[in-house]
Amino acid sequence: MTRLFVVTGAPGSGKSTVVPELVRLSPGNMIVMDMDELLDDHGRLLGIDIASPTAAPIWPAYNALWLRITELIRRSGIPVLLLTPTLPPELPEGRWLHLDIPDAERRKRLAGRGWPEAQIEEALADAAEIRKLVPRSVRGDVSPERSARSILEWIRGERLGKTLGLWGRLRS
Length: 172
Known about the structure:
By secondary structure, the protein is an alpha/beta fold. Helices cover 44% and strands 16% of the residues. It has six helices and seven strands. Strands 2-5-1-6-7 form a five-stranded parallel β-sheet, with helices on both faces. Strands 3-4 form a two-stranded antiparallel sheet. Strand 3 and strand 4 (48-49) form a beta hairpin. Helix 1 (15-25) crosses helix 5 and helix 3 (103-112) packs antiparallel against helix 4 (117-133). The longest helix is centred in the last third of the chain and has 17 residues, at 117-133. The relative contact order is 0.22.
């Protein structure tokens, strides 16, 4: 089956912002999807606020749904790039990359969205956990186009069996 590429990042890293650039820069080469795209305008899936701690029991089913969606697409031979806040143990398939920003920038972005301090602290803890589990990263605190180009460079390397080299990391 065709590969699944997964870009993870804690809230505020720029995942949703980079999607239009990824689509623009890779027309017809792969399907680009953000996990948030199934949610309604209020962050709900089937009426449930997916970001609420009370939704935790349905997160495994939500992850399984996304994995199934990607399998349906990939069986036709089209690679998929999925952007998600999940971790490899929660979605145990694919090649993983981390879209990351400095904690001070994440705090600023989330405060700008009106997030309460407790949720910001939780996002910072999530970012620290992602850094441990997915150490290969590209920057999300640059222009969306630059982040997208770095992600696509990583995918090209993965397709060719190469990892993102030192030169690629420095340019990211």
